[in-house]
Amino acid sequence: xxxxxxxxxFHFESAFIASIVGCFWAATSSASTKNNTNDFFxxxxxxxxxxxxxxxxxxxxxxxxxxxxxxxxxWLMLPVPSVFLGYAIGRLYKKFKIPKPVIFSxxxxxxxxxxxxxxxxxxxxxxxxxxHIWGTWPGPIYDETLRITESxxxxxxxxxLWIILLWILPNWSDSFQNKxxxxxxxxxxxxxxxxxxxxxxxxPRDALKSELEIEIKTPHFDLYFEEDNFTxxxxxxxxxxxxxxxxxxxxxxxxxxxxGRKIESxxxxxxxxxxxxxxxxxxxxxxxxxxQDQLHIAKQQLRGVLKHELVHAITKQFGNDxxxxxxxxxxxxxxxxxxxxxxxxxxxxxxxxxSEKNYPNAEQLKNALSTSGFYSTAxxxxxxxxxxxxxxxLENYPTQNFKDSYSKGAFDxxxxxxxxxxxxxxxxxLDSVKVDSVDKLVSEFIFSRQSLFQKSCPHVFSESMQLWDxxxxxxxxxxxxxxxxxxxxxxxxxxxxxxxxxxxxxxxLLHGKHAPALYAFDDSDNPLTLQLLxxxxxxxxxxxxxxxxxxDELKPxxxxxxxxNFKYSYELRSDSLNWKFFLDxxxxxxxxxxxxxxxxxxxxxxxxxxxxxEQHVNQIVIQEFASVLLKKEFNPDWFGVYEQLIEELxxxxxxxxxxxxxxxxxxxKLRLRHQERLQELxxxxxxxxxxxxxx
Length: 695
Hints:
Layout: H1 12-32, H2 39-52, H3 55-64, H4 69-77, H5 79-95, H6 101-121, E1 129-131, E2 135-137, H7 150-168, H8 176-194, H9 205-211, E3 214-217, E4 221-225, H10 232-252, E5 263-268, H11 271-278, E6 294-298, H12 302-314, H13 329-340, H14 349-356, H15 362-369, H16 371-376, H17 379-396, H18 399-406, H19 411-414, H20 419-432, H21 437-447, H22 463-476, H23 480-493, H24 498-510, H25 514-520, H26 528-540, H27 544-560, H28 569-572, H29 576-587, H30 594-598, H31 602-615, H32 619-629, H33 639-651, H34 655-666, H35 672-694
Parallel strand pairs: 4-5, 5-6
Antiparallel strand pairs: 1-2, 3-4
């Protein structure tokens, strides 16, 4: 087992396999043994032998430093009940003198372990599952943080009830005690199964709709939003974005969408709520295998993945008959990446691949498009490679060719030339793509990522990681008090961690605790981020001269660094007026009036507008400030802020102002990826204008 990725760790994956092996072993052994004077100890012996499977990963995890309490917990919660359940089933058939008890035992285990899962898989929107044979599947393994949960404890209690019932059942009428135990087991099982959704064992669609209480209907969508994290205006904005991307995708793939068919979109307040309800935390997903089209996305991921996930829902129209997708996972994800183009905000798919130069040949690409090859590398690499190739196919061959080959991944059957020739032409196209230093940095970042299978301890979740996770949960819920408490505890546990200290200082400044932040700085705080925070803390404490002195000392370092996030750090603080309004916006959520705003530096104006968009400030004020930006020459470094601003202005039907900003961007020299994004802004503005006329 130590030679297989993930199975080498004493954690969920190895325990999952051990529970299946142990369950079938125990069932067939108990069913085939004719005379066994002590069934309990026989089951214990089989369990002991099953645990021998865990010895190699246990030793590996100890020496690799990967052993965790959760890993030990999975090895207790998965194999132990499964072995005793398997033994109880085999023993039941033997006691009832059923012909061929071994065969019946195996059939029963297959029905429970595979048949029940199939029913749930094709009828429930969740991606986590519980099963008495193999214990649990907690959701996408890319989420990595697999923990023992209350739901697992409850479900294994239900398994324990089944074990008792099946063990007693052959002799249930022999004594009053057996009758009582049988009756109690049945009653407890009844109440347990009536509360499966409340205990997080299953999540029906109706349960999701009751949790996500804001409901919006559009021509092609029924949308459900979590009301604590979405205003009605935000929900309406994202509903319109759904319709916009829907139109883009059906046009790109030449799809005639069935009349009256609607997609259900479940938008969660944050990743933690999504994990609790459907089992996927940071992984957005579309259950294409369900008859009802669905999207499942957390609020934080909406901007980056909505279009990508919508492609999955729409390509069901030409997927296979079994699960509405393709037998090539690379085609499923590749077409979404090709149409969404969201691998990077700075570089196109072609530029990312062209910067790498080590293009996959035809055989390697076929392997990368397969399930095993796709998941053997980091998702960012697989998605980008498949996306670039499929984007090339869609742009250079009829769309129908791709749609015909999609379900089986049969390129040679539906394209006019061999797969090898198309790969060769793709290589030639990549060679013609111009790249620069930014593209090379983006490509290097993406292609240096490790797959989950390549990480040494993929499931280690330390106390510090838990606190960091809790801190981010509170930030997503806009609970500043709890966020401050979490980062305070984390900081006290890890005083030397500069990343933790950075966020701790920011939280102190956000809460007006300037003095504690200043006292915490010492000679080891060399990172520029911390030094800038120290200067901000001095300024906020009205020690302007010391703040200015420190900032002037930092200027040579700021000028010489290649990190883009420091490019405007000095300019934003270049004088007291700009520095004041910059800090007011960032730490006090206070914004200047139009008169003051007009006198600020361009970079400060853009940053303030960005903060205002994030805080959903009064639209009239944003419009006034946007008009001021029109008088300034557009700087491509701030493309992202302009993008958000134009999207917001179009949504509020300020079409002329949005078009003016688009024109100011259009007259500038833009990166290829920015040109793609600008084109989408034009399409968005036009779409909203037409949509508002129709409805």
